[in-house]
Write a structure and sequence with these properties.
single chain; alpha/beta; Rossmann fold; 2 domains; 8-stranded mixed β-sheet; 6-stranded parallel β-sheet; 43% helix; 16% strand; disordered N terminus; binds adenosine-5'-diphosphate; binds magnesium ion
Length: 419
């Protein structure tokens, strides 16, 4: 690293800078910068950086790593000026926030950082951000160009003015919520051959979102913007943020980077659901594992809120806590459907017995039981394919298809009753 004025006399050309009030506070950043660019970087304070960048020729500096701490929040204007100066000289900005308030973070993101990696830096996170910036400078590769409009799934509004909304949340990690969300959405999109409903998956598992992974879809940068500005976005803006899986599913993925769960609040989530239901007949929402400020927003809007769990103590205890929390908040528990994943088979009497005990002790019934589908389930996800395509006869797929048929029939008869 070279520091301050030494920057100008350093023989190796400087390609990057850290910008912070105190670089030594960001030890992991120093290490990562050394790994990524060796000696070819400098460190600057906010004011220094602004002046330094203003004096640069366009194209001489690749990026700045802008590290902003809680203490810097009192004067975010100075930080904003650095971002503006960088933009003017086509210098990419990697924002590295530490413990910033949601409002502060929003403000900086709004000013337009090119990428965003929270501090402490996760292994490889800075490397990925630098690669992403380098890629962004290249012309876009063919596979991420948006599908021509005619290939994109139809959007419509057939369900008598009311889209059906299904949400899925796991009560313990890895109990199959995303697998269910993705495959249920696919089956619903195929539930009516003659008049297929339009289906959208909203991945709101902002920190661990894996819908894009399970369907091998790119993540659009505009998603982050839309999440924050959902209340002022129109359906055209919303559609631009979607990516498409074949011609049957549209997906609102999570942003490429981890963002705080409270980056959005009930208003943004309500607005997103409004946008999705204006454009699609069916909206499937993959929820984060934890309870958030907007869990009740989704629970209130959903027609059915599926929670996945397995036959073990961890699931039982989490379910107990979840139900208790919902009760104390007066949330509509009647919408909750408990899905027992990796449920015991018909002949597993011991397992059946344990299942009954667990249901009794929770005071719930397992309205859906999903069998263990073995390795092909994970493999389908890893290959970015739905079960229907990768393992058509898999027992898990068959059960999800049954669930989808039941839901679709209920929707159709409700629409008929209203019509
Ligand atoms: N019924 C099942 N049979 C076999 N594998 C499953 C089943 N349900 C989920 N899996 C696998 O378990 C892992 C976690 O599933 P995932 O849907 O990501 O869980 P969650 O979203 O609840 O964290 C994935 O690898 C998935 O393929
Ligand atoms: Mg998940």
């Amino acid at each position: 690293m070279s520091s301050g004025l030494a920057l100008h006399s350093e023989p190796a050309p400087i390609v990057a800078c850290t910008v912070s009030s105190k670089v030594h506070h960001f030890g992991l950043l120093i290490e990562d910068m050394e790994t990524e660019v060796g000696e070819a970087w400098g460190d600057l304070g906010f004011d220094e950086a602004r002046e330094f960048i203003n004096a640069l020729d366009v194209g001489t500096l690749e990026f700045i790593a802008l590290a902003v701490r809680e203490e810097d929040e009192a004067d975010l204007g100075r930080v904003g000026e650095v971002i503006n100066a960088a933009h003017a000289k086509e210098v990419a900005v990697i924002l590295i926030p530490e413990n910033l308030s949601t409002a502060g973070l929003r403000e900086l993101l709004r000013l337009g950082a090119d990428d965003f990696v929270p501090y402490p830096l996760a292994e490889g996170a800075l490397h990925d951000a630098i690669e992403k910036i380098a890629r962004a400078k290249q012309p876009p590769p063919a596979e991420v160009t948006p599908l021509p409009v005619s290939d994109a799934p139809a959007t419509g509004h057939r369900m008598d003015g009311n889209s059906a909304i299904f949400a899925v949340q796991n009560l313990a990690g890895g109990t199959g919520a995303t697998t269910l969300a993705v495959n249920l959405a696919w089956e619903l999109a195929h539930a009516d051959k003659k008049n297929p409903p339009s289906v959208c998956v909203l991945d709101l598992d902002l920190q661990h979102g894996s819908v894009a992974t399970y369907l091998d879809l790119p993540r659009r940068d505009i998603v982050l913007e839309l999440l924050q500005d959902a209340t002022t976005m129109d359906t055209d803006g919303f559609k631009q943020a979607l990516v498409h899986y074949g011609d049957k599913l549209s997906v609102f993925t999570t942003p490429a980077e981890i963002v705080p769960l409270d980056l959005v609040g009930p208003d943004e989530v309500n607005a997103l659901i409004d946008l999705a239901s204006q454009c699609f007949d069916i909206v499937v929402i993959d929820m984060p594992r934890t309870m958030v400020m907007w869990t009740d927003t989704v629970l209130t809007r959903a027609d059915v809120f599926f929670t996945t769990l397995e036959l073990d103590l961890r699931s039982a205890q989490n379910a107990m806590r979840f139900i208790k929390a919902c009760r104390s908040e007066d949330l509509p528990l009647e919408k909750m459907h408990y899905v027992l994943n990796r449920a015991p088979g018909l002949t597993d009497l011991n397992g059946k017995n344990r299942m009954k005990k667990m249901a009794d002790s929770l005071g719930v019934s397992f309205s859906t039981q999903l069998p263990d589908g073995g390795k092909p389930v994970m493999q389908a996800g890893d290959n970015g394919e739905t079960l229907a395509e990768a393992a058509k006869k898999n027992p898990l797929r068959k059960e999800i298809m049954k669930l989808s048929d039941g839901l679709y029939k209920a929707m159709a008869s409700e629409a008929r009753a209203k019509g």
